[in-house]
Amino acid sequence: MANNNTHPGTQVPSIGDHLSPTSVSNSCHGGFSTAVAPEALGNLAADPTKAASAAVEQKITPWEVEGAVVDGKVQAIDYGRLIKQFGTQRIGPELLERFEKATGHRPHILLRRGMFFSHRNLELILERYEKGLPFFLVHRTGWLQDVFDVPLVIMLTDDEKYLFRQKLEISDVKKFTRENVADIIAVGFDVKKTFIFSDFDFMGGAFYENIDCIGKIHFASVQAATAFSSTFPHIFGTDPKKNTRIPSLIPCAIDQDPYFRLTRDVATRLKYIKPALMHSLPRSARARKKKINKYAFSGGQPTLEEQRKYGGNPDVDVSFQYLSFFLESDEELARIRETYVKGELTSGELKAKCIKELQDFVGGFQERRKAVTPEIVLEFMRVRPLEWGSGKESVKEPVEEVARKVAEAVIN
């Protein structure tokens, strides 16, 4: 799959995303919330006392993402407060400059626009990259694979889907897993450097499938194990002196940070290197409910006259948020933001720009998805050694070419 066919900012959710286990619920409750505002890097320096005066405070947990509400209006994220309360570090200009200098790549739009805004030990990963030391990626971020030229493992939590959705049978979630893998492949990953696995298949088997409610208690440990390189001996070997000293970099939404704080604590006890984290914005419950249609949440004014006079608020406008993820040109995005704030651009015109951008992306994705065969899915999920470290960017071959090579190979 060629790079120009795949939008670099897309991360495909797995079927188990954000279904957090009861085993970590006590650690995760009491979180903080927010409305998604990807273009609001300036809010990182916001007064941390500002959100405290809101009628409804922002709240982020693995289950809920709600923005602060003042006088009935959803407010933008107070990132400074988030960073302080989660105890993370800001991804600032200095770190982005080091990223570009070390990799030779301009930071991806998700980095330079603040969608990934905080981290744990990202500087240590950059140090390893600069020294040529190994590490690997966990999650569904192909753009980091392109830059770092390292292995990428993607976990499909079909066991979680089964455990927390009691109406589903194991056969149902396994079917959903294969479909989800095909979706992920269509976004664009290098098959030589990517291992996609199902918890039921790779971590479990027939014995594991018979574990029902007890699975809820230990599920957090299943997720945590993916952060350790020794979990994948077919990739990193079986020598404990080597495969326990290869850390992972895990991009995740900040509302999932409690999982990985536990994982980092466990790593210390196991004498493993702690996984590093990059935190993105959580998915807003409000935004999920109000899509790009006539019910979409708008940062515009109630009337055209008021819009022209007062302008709109892009930080809480769903259409602008989507553009922030999909529009490649920083200059064009800045122009849209400025004209919307000034009232020169209406909510309807902003929505139309967003729809056009999404239609182009979805159309391309659908074409690639049609070409993903069951054989290609099996190849990405096959337990096999991976190839990396050539110093070259990932080459995402067209799915037709991958299909041809897979057809010629013997798939175990």
Describe the structure.
With 412 residues, the chain is an alpha/beta fold. A seven-stranded mixed sheet has the order 5-6-11-10-7-8-9, with helices on both faces. It has a two-stranded antiparallel ribbon with strand order 1-2. A two-stranded antiparallel ribbon has the order 3-4. The chain has helices spanning 25-28, 79-86, 93-103, 109-112, 122-131, 142-148, 158-164, 170-187, 199-204, 206-209, 214-225, 233-236, 240-243, 257-270, 285-289, 304-310, 318-326, 330-342, 347-370, 374-381, 399-408, and strands at 59-60, 65-66, 69-70, 73-74, 89-90, 116-120, 136-138, 152-156, 194-198, 248-253, 276-280. A hairpin with a 2-residue loop joins β3 (69-70) and β4. The model is unreliable at 1-54 and 285-295 (pLDDT under 50). α7 crosses α8 (170-187), α8 crosses α19 and α17 crosses α19. It is built from 21 helices and eleven strands. Helix content is 46%, strand content 9%. The chain is globular, with a radius of gyration of 22 Å. It starts with 24 loop residues before the first helix and ends with a helix.
Instruction: Tell me the radius of gyration.
Output: 22 Å
Helix content: 40-55%
Please tell me what the overall shape is. Answer: globular
Class by helix and strand content?
alpha/beta
Q: Identify the strand order in the major beta sheet.
A: 5-6-11-10-7-8-9
Gap between N and C termini? 24 Å
Number of helices: 21
Strand tally, please? 11
Spans where pLDDT lies below 50 across 5 or more residues: 1-54, 285-295
